[in-house]
Amino acid sequence: MHAASEPTETMMAGQIPLPVPSKMTEPFWAGMRQNKLLLQRCKTCNAYRWTPQVLCRDCYSEDYEWSEVSGKGTVFSYTVVHRPPLPAFKAPYIVAVIELAEGPLMLTNVIDCDPAALKVGDKVKVAFEKATDEVTLYRFRLA
Ligand SMILES: [Zn+2]
Question: What is the pTM of this model?
Answer without folding.
Answer: 0.87
